[in-house]
Structure prediction request, 516 residues.
Amino acid sequence: MADAARTYVTTPIYYVNDVPHIGHAYTTLACDVFARFMRLDGHEVFFLTGTDEHGQKVDKAAAAAGMAPKPFTDKVSENFRALASAMDISNDDFIRTTEPRHYRACEALWRRIHDAGDLYLGDYGGWYAVRDEAFYRESETTVQPDGTRLGPTGAPVEWVKEPSWFFRLSAWQDRLLAFYAANPDFIAPESRRNEVISFVKSGLEDLSVSRTSFTWGVPVPGSDGHVMYVWLDALTNYITAAGYPDEAHPRWRFWPADLHMVGKDILRFHAVYWPAFLMSAGIAPPKRVFAHGWWTVEGQKMSKSLGNVVDPHAVIGEFGLDPFRFFLLREIPFGADGDFSRRAMIRRLNIDLANEFGNLAQRTLGFVARNLDGMLPSPDVLGGDDEALLAQAKGLLPLMRAEMRRQAFHAALESAWQVVREANSYIDRQAPWKLRKADPVRMGTVLWTLAETLRHLAILLQPVMPRSMARLLDQLGVDARDRDFAALARPLPGGHAVPTPEPLFRKVEDKEGQGA
RNA sequence: GGCGGCGUAGCUCAGCUGGUUAGAGCACGGCACUCAUAAUGCCGGGGUCGGCGGUUCAAGUCCGCCCGCCGCUACCA
Prediction:
């Protein structure tokens, strides 16, 4: 490859007011694993995450904290950096919507869309409750027998209009449908794609894209009193970080993004509004938007009122980072909803990681340490059983590549575990402990075959469990320069010393009475 | 209400354009092994594939109806 393939992957920008929980950790982790996989596979990767820091809520929260908005967001956006750090996230940039570069990008994008004739000034109306100082959706209001209309809090609401800029979304319906038809992989999973298409087909209204009722946002160029409303501000972050509007910026080569990872709640903004904005501005839309599912906790919906919001830091503290990362991507088909429970977490850690995988490494490398003075043997003549296992290990890269391409993280891991199980079966069949005296040369070949299989697994699982797999590669004596996917094609030579292994994963005792 | 999807072993799910005795993992039972983090391997029980009725030489796999469940049906960042 003269010109390395490039990959651009993004998380949503997280609303800075939120407290980071398992859901944020999940989205970011999925992107991280994808980014790490592509890097190891030779791609030049740009991986972006960040925080969304504008809006009335932030303004109010800052006021409540007795702070100006900017210093307030400086402080709370740290929560999300801390989460990324605790999760070993390999993002290349962290964008904040309060940065000057983002204001420049928003203004430039606004002007392009305005010049294209897709913005016009009108009135935005909504049901406003003076008592709550909030707007409500019509569906949230109820009409009393006496004819008064009340909001969800019981406060009376009135129809209030404010001047607002509108994006002519209604004009983009056909072009969006054509875009979806021409790009069948643009929205995943497929069920979500169907929903979006059906939504667009049902007819699109123009979109209110500015507000005059608050000031904490990006000012609309040439329109005093207006700040950009959420969509045009937040979504723009993806091109801001790529250097927009400087199309000569080195990072602009990464646009269009290969993958916007989002929760299913914000799919519409990414799959409908965002490509429409971009096409209006003459910018290529992203290649793919993946909407993943939600986690429940011990069978219940996660909510502040139930007090069951899972703090990722606590889980990492109890089970370790890599087991947590593994669990999140292994437990459920990516895209579907899932349940986080102690029982399930412990089962994955103890069985999949400690017993099946960790113990496979331990029994192999421990044997080498104890019986061969830590000298990893070189292979002699390979037999059919050896070659079958090695072929399965070598087949893993193309298999996992295909699964990663469609974000089937669970399937990629399952295919790796098929090799783990086969290796355990192989070691029992070959019984190197019996060969020790009977046929030491054959024993060496068996141990090498296992080590080479472990090397494949360790290299390929680095994206999911970077720390543990680095340890395993250390234990196998694999040089730091030989740990990318290209190195898979160069067999482990053997004949070198390896350290006495330490268990890769520590089991956790399953306490009774916990969880469902 | 409209549109879309789902209902397959105790649990979580695979089963592409219909084709021999319906699969995996977990859980459960038996056996083997004892190199290993009391780990692992092998074998096995168990399913009227939601119900009814069609199409077909042949249907979890297509069609119709019914029952149950879920998602979407726009301005919260």
Q: What stands out?
A: Confidence is low (pLDDT under 50) at residues 512-516 of chain A.
